[in-house]
Amino acid sequence: MARVLGRVRQSRTQDDSISENVQRDAIQRWADSEGHEVVGWAVDLNTSGTKDPFQTESLGPWLNKRADEFDILACYKMDRLSRVTVNAFKLLQWSKENGKAIKAVEDKFDPSSREGELIFFIVAWLAEGELSAIQQRAKDTFTRMVADGRYRGGHQPYGYRTVKAEKGWRFEVDPETAETIRRITSEVTSGVSNSEVCRRLNAEGVPTPRDADRVRAGKAPKGYKWTAATLGPLLRSKGLMGVTTVNADGERVEVRGSDGVPVQFADPILSRAEFGQLQTALDSRTFTRARNRVDASPMLHVAYCACGSPMFYLEVKRYSGEGENRYYRCGARSADDGCPLGYGNARRADEIEELVTQSFLDAIGHLPMLRRVFVPGEDNAQELEKVREALEWHVTALQPGGVLSHPSTRDKASEALRELQGRYDELSGKPSIPDRWVSEETGETYREFWERSGWADRRQLLLEFGFKAVLFEQSHVRMMQPADFVARAKATEWTAEELAARSETEAAIMREWLTWREGGPVRLMSDEAIARIVGKTA
Question: Which of 82, 115, 136 is the last residue of a domain?
């Protein structure tokens, strides 16, 4: 009676005809019929036949460290050991050197004989050729599915869902998660930090992409949390525009069809213009990390000294040991030269915060609070942009040395170029209504929102409207609010031009109250101080 080690391997593409149970049963029947004992199983599932048997998770330790515990290595068929000729030869040599027998219970030959050894290598060679054919078919299928924009299996991008199509499965926009994407985009482009966006989503119980996948699969959510680390890649994904991408040297690039137009796997959630605006907002944060702090000072980028320096926030323990006193003081005080205006005294935080609260709510507290909502346009702007990009790509590709410059492809590419030009002319002549952001009421006033919110949310609201508090000596505080402050609070629709003009408007209003008279000489804020304060509003 010999000791048998049963070898079971199943690749990801294998079917049920040689499933784990089928292989186990065949090996066990053979061992029983020969009077042998199965002393162990080396089972490697989801393991490619190209992997070296000595490196596999289960069989590897038996071959490398436990060879003295078995006499026969038994498998269902020889391709369960390896589909690579070199690896098969390596395993056969090892079996000879270590006095082990190899048995494929469904193959009718004995690898220990010279004839069987020859057949063993022929079988391994054929298995390797079959594997190459399988890999090529899989690659061809993948290429076709990419070109058609079809669902290829695996993870579903957030904001989309799969639906049965005439051929396989396709993506369509998922209304619920797509609305979350648009909401996040609105907040981020309005100046809300990624960390703050995550805090709000978690507070409202909005499912994360992982939980959304579980719910879609009929499973209970696990309560995963939104984090800035996971939100960032989601907002960087070109899939938000509905375009198919592939990995190229570590970077996701758009897949283009034979006509040079990016392949769409579904309708876009964000237009190219909105996606570009989102990327600009994200890029700007590389240099303004202070805004992204969840525990930031309540008046960060809101309260400034008249010298132009931001006010630092201080918490000092009381002498009694119970509680803390909170203050703001000029941030330049810690520098060697101190505050240029000599304003070194700390100001009580509650007094400044109360003044900001009163000024803000007096102006718009009674108004209904609005939030920005994305409204898709009824136009051909996105298609026109894609055709324009395809035209540019074809022109470049047809240049000498370009990918379409060879005579075998040039005629066909030139014809495609003419068709694209005709399509571009056709689209250019059609009227269009661009995508836009409009405002809708949230169901509460600004005062109600303010009173139920903490300073993190209040600060984001102040930043959105460009509200500033500038502190002078003798505890005098002057509030700066843009001229269009109330108008923006009542706005029903904002254009890109209006949003871009905000910083210029705020700078002009800042200069309207440059002078401050308090029974003494006129004090003027320097242009440098103004620039430092206004520069933080963008």
Answer: 136
